[in-house]
Amino acid sequence: MKIDILTLFPEAFSALNCSILKRAQESGKLEINIINIRDFSLDKHGKCDDYTYGGGAGMLMTPQPIFDAVKSVKKRGSHIVFASPCGEKLSPELAQSLSKKKHLIFICGHYEGIDQRIIDIFKPQEISVGDYVLTGGEIPTMTIIDCLARFVDGVITKESLDEESFSSGGLEYPQYTHPQVFEGLSVPEVLLSGNHAEIAKWRKKESEKRTKERRADLIK
Ligand SMILES: C[S@@+](CC[C@H](N)C(=O)[O-])C[C@H]1O[C@@H](n2cnc3c(N)ncnc32)[C@H](O)[C@@H]1O
After folding, report:
1. Please, are residues 118 and 66 in contact by the beta-carbon 8 Å criterion?
2. All CATH 1.10.1270.20 domain ranges in the chain, comma separated
């Protein structure tokens, strides 16, 4: 899968170059390019934002540099995403559907956001990472990419996907590793028993308990 990210702040994306996403890029499962929108500004000072018509606080990203940046990477079949608090909420199902696309283009808004005409022209899929407002689209875009990358074939094992929170509706059970006793707290006996049926039963029970206590809204 190829991903082009259009942003005014390319330096924000260093987080994509470590751990699992780094390996996914090195093995060719993901190709991620960062494109600086400012490089497309026709303004002699490279300006990419301006006051909003109608007044109001803050600046808005102007359409011309974004338009030309999108045009420079868009091909037939490209799928454009705009991270926005006004979009549909990110979910595992949405991330999985994005993971099937061959070419994704992400537009990162900043300041007060982007000129509506970019949305009207390119009709991007607008995706929100939650009901709160962040300073820019860089972190939400990385969140969406990290989430969808887990569904790209071979990026992580299928087993890792299967028992995660939300994969079967509820939250994950508590997990333990070595040492067996830490600060006087022991790993639950059943996990040391080697009895896989009992372990599965315990995990199911703990998962249901945690979901009921913390996220009753997830219980159908
Ligand atoms: C300060 S926000 C603009 C918020 C916008 N004026 C509004 O009220 O909906 C700047 C940019 O950050 C990104 N952003 C902020 N919060 C977000 C969220 N919850 N989900 C996705 N993107 C978000 C968007 O790209 C947005 O254009």
Report:
1. yes
2. 165-218
Q: Which residues of the chain have pLDDT under 50?
A: none
The pLDDT of residue 220 is 79
Site residues for ligand 1, CB cut-off 6 Å: 83-86, 108-110, 112-114, 128-130, 132-137, 140
Enter the pTM of the model. Answer: 0.96
2-158 is a CATH 3.40.50.300 domain: no
Testing ligand 1's pocket by substitution, the residue of 133, 142, 144 carrying the most ligand atoms inside 8 A of its CB is 133
pLDDT of 175 reads 97
**What is the DSSP secondary-structure string of 127-169?**
EESSSS--SBSHHHHHHHHHHHHTTSTTSS-HHHHHTSTTTTS
What is the pLDDT, as a whole number, of residue 176?
Answer: 98
pLDDT of residue 162: 84
